[in-house]
Structure formats: structure tokens, C-alpha cells
Amino acid sequence: MPLKTDARSGRKYIEARYQPPVSAYSRWPGLPKRITRRFPVGFETEAERWLNEAETAIRMGTWEPPQIEEDSRKAGAVTFAQYSAAYLQKHRKANGEPIAPTTRQKYEQYLRDDLLPILGDMSMAAIRPKDIQRWADSMKVGKAGEGASIKRHVWELLSAIFKEACSKPLDEEGTTLLRNNPVLLRVDKPNSNRAYGDVSMEELNALVEAMPGRFSLVLYLVGVLSLRPGEAYALQRKDIELVEDGSGGVVHITKSAKGIMKDGHKVMEVSSTKTKGSVRDLELPPFLIPHIRHHLDTYVEDRPNAWLFTGERTRGLVFDQSVRNAWYRARKAVPRLEQRKLRLYDLRHRALTEVAKHTNSIKAIMAQGGHTQVSTAMHYQHVTESERGKILAGIEADGEAAEHGGKPAQPPEGIQESGQELHALAAALESMDLEVRVQVLNGLSQERRNRVLACFSAQVQAETMTILLSKAV
Description:
Layout: E1 3-5, E2 12-18, H1 24-27, E3 35-40, H2 44-60, H3 66-77, H4 80-90, H5 101-119, H6 129-138, H7 148-167, H8 201-210, H9 213-223, H10 229-233, E4 240-242, E5 249-253, E6 256-262, E7 265-271, E8 280-284, H11 289-299, H12 320-330, H13 335-339, H14 346-357, H15 362-369, H16 385-403, H17 419-430, H18 434-442, H19 446-455, H20 458-472
Helix pairs in contact: 4-5, 5-6, 5-7, 8-9, 14-15, 17-19, 18-20
């Protein structure tokens, strides 16, 4: 071991070095020809021990570069609490954008309430599948499924944290903090008996009547036009364009509003829509125009940037919780929906289910709802003016029929559906949750429903038919 002098400080040091095994270069192409380490003068024994340990590891076939050993020591030192906190600060969505503040706050709550009490003080390297099982056992699910949904959400966060620890490179060699993922168990999505889209136009009108006047239009925007509630809250007067003769209009969806905690207080934050595809223009059916005009004249200030929905006392942008509280009271006007605890967001399912009755184009349905995730077949379809017209005509007919006590309009007759369109519809439905899939199928004619069912895979066909038949009994 040669004695050398540091060029900067002039201090003497011992340089220990050895050659890595030849076989290591295929696994770690960036390895240097020599692995070196400095030791202070007088630490010859420690240098010899380091060289002997490396020689033993090479002989036994267990040798790894020193950087990997250092990363392993990091995994043994960093706790789950430390790593998860860093994860929330640095994690980004698949498109590279940071996660929304509301999402981060939700994750912080999951960690604080459900994960850190079990795993927080353990080192990442020490956590084993039995510890994950211990966490799972700590989150009890009631006989009626109480707690199943939140358990699934917490599991998704836990899985994402350990997936990153096992896949995110720490160095140029691709070394990761962990090699083995201890999250082996799976928490399935719970079944739900929510009403989803099973809301008639008459029931929707009853809910609208039971809502406070300044919030009632939200129900039509969500339950007829398929806006997300946050998209409705963020609307301003300039986003509504009405035709003078009352024959229609357009609503421009360009942003969304969410309630977040800031400095210990909840505030409403207006930001971009959920996805780029959520920015869209929707045509307004004529039956909604009087409702919109009344709302604009009664509750909205006469300036372009005025919010459509405001607090009764503050006159500022409405708090989402205020609308939800009003919704819970209004829901009692329809006992069936109150019993099933229909959520305000479920009215969006109702709207998209109704849209499916009036068009064969899944691309048109996706455009109406502001979705971007579609099957490969969807890329070969285009939203045509005729499809938009069918949707608008169908919505208008249902609205008029409900107002005059008539029957809802039936789907357009004589639609010739190509095999490509039929398989595209089936592919899109297979990707949906079972409950939503069933609601959409129930909105189709018997003949069309049977044709779509025939396109499903055997497994999806069986589970779907089971639910359809059980509801028919």
C-alpha cells in the first residue's frame, strides 16, 4: 500500500486499492479498473482489513461495488417515516407534473392516521411482508364493507411508495434503495351499491327543487352536462355563452376549483382541470337555458370574471363543503337516493350514462365527460357534428318529457353500428368499474345490450351478466 501526499492539503495518506472481479464488468459496465480508498497514516490495519474483506467477497462470489454497499446502508438507516415524507415532497404524476395540493393533503392524512403508527419508526430495509400484513390487519373492514374504500386508497399509496423505493435509481449504475418489495398482499377495490347513474330526470328535477336556489344549477351542470363538481364551482360569467333567442348556448370548461388547507384554514383554490382533455366546450340544451338565465340574473354579478357560484354571506367563490352540505339536505327529497347515499359526484355518472343512450360514438362520450384514457380502438373514431347533435337532441327530449310529465325519449332508431364501433364500445365498458358498466348497459336497448355483451371477454361477460340478472329478479 503506497504512501501518498494530498496535492491540496499536503497531508500524507495510505492508498489501498484492488481490482474488481472480471465478471463484475458485465453487470456494472461503469466500474473503474481499480477500486481505491484512502486511509490516514497509522491506519494500516484498517486498510488491510478492508482489502481482505474485498478479497473474501470476490472469492465467494458475493462482491458488489462500494457504492451499492453504501446504498444498502442508507436503506438500513432511513425510516419509513423519513422516506414517505420525501416521497410526498418529490413525487410527480406520470406526465411530470407535481401532485395537486389536495392530493398531497389526502396522502398526509393516510400516513398520519394509518401507516406511520405501524411502520413509521421502522427502517425501509427492515420492513417485511409480515409487517405489511400487520398494517392490513390494523385497518378493519366492517361486515357491510365499512372502511373498505379507505383501506384500498391507503394500500395504493403504500404500494406506490415501495414501488419507487425498488425502482428509482440512486446512481448511474441503477442501484435502488430496496431490491425486494415487501408489499405482496393486494387490497381489492370494494364492491359498491351506490346508485351511480340510476337517477331519472324526474328525480333530478326533485333534487334541484330541494337545493338552495344559488346552488341548484350545480346539479344540472353535473347531472345533465357531466361536469365534475369542481369544474362547475370554477365557472365564471364569461364561461357561459347564450344564444339571444334562447335556443341554446355553450359552456366553456377551462379550470377547476378545490378546497385545500392553507395555514390551518380551508381555502378554495382554482387551478387547471384534471387533465388536458378536460378543457372542453359543451353545448347547452334549450330546456336548461331558462334555469341558467335565472341563475345569472339572480345570483351572479354583472361582470365577466364574476363567479357563478358564491357563498350567501361572503359573496366569494363558494366552498365545496357548503354545496355538499346543501346536497345532503336536498337528497332527502328522494328517499330512494337518500337510502343509497348518492354522492353529488355520482350525478356525473348519471349524465354520462344518459349520453350513452343517444350516441354510438364512445369518442363523443369521452369528449362530453372530458376523459382522455380510451382504448386503442378509440383512436380510430372521431366526434362528428351529427353525434353531438344526437346527444343534444336526446338530452333536450328527456328534459322536456320530464317537465311535461311524459316518458323519457328513447334512443334514436335505425342507427347502424359497425363491428369496429361495437367492439370499441365493449372495450371501453370493460375498462369501467362493474357498477358503472352495468348502469350504462341498462341504458341501452335490449338488442344493443345483447350485442355489446357478446363482445366482452368470457370473464367480464360472466360477472356483468351475474349483476344484470340479479337486478332483473
